[in-house]
């Protein structure tokens, strides 16, 4: 793992994997508390809409044909369910060594190594 790969990690990962001279139980309990807070959702968030714009909002820039009516945003329940999960990262089932998940992980590591090498060659 290169230095650049570690530097690009999200802060949550760096906190969870950091080591210190204090007891490891404190670090583990903080990581567990952070994970529990991310999983639990308050009751107030249940009513928050999925989309970023309310129903009947004019969607500027989507109507590019002349003489057509303006495009309006629909209610959240009128959109297909897959639309709300399209930006989440794809998860592969762990099917052992040599499986799909392992191949995807190795490909990402190779691509990152190439990017790091190219970046270091420009310095």
Automatic annotation (TrEMBL):
Keyword Ribonucleoprotein annotated: yes
Superkingdom to which the source organism belongs: Eukaryota
Localization per record: Mitochondrion
Biased composition (Basic and acidic residues): 110-123
A molecular-function term among this protein's GO annotations: structural constituent of ribosome
Region of interest called Disordered, as start-end residue ranges on this chain: 89-123
Any one Pfam family match given in the protein's UniProt record, by short name: Ribosomal_L37
Keyword check for Mitochondrion: yes
Record keywords: Mitochondrion, Ribonucleoprotein, Ribosomal protein, Transit peptide
A GO cellular component entry from the record: mitochondrial large ribosomal subunit
Family, similarity comment: Belongs to the mitochondrion-specific ribosomal protein mL54 family.
UniProt name for this protein: Large ribosomal subunit protein mL54
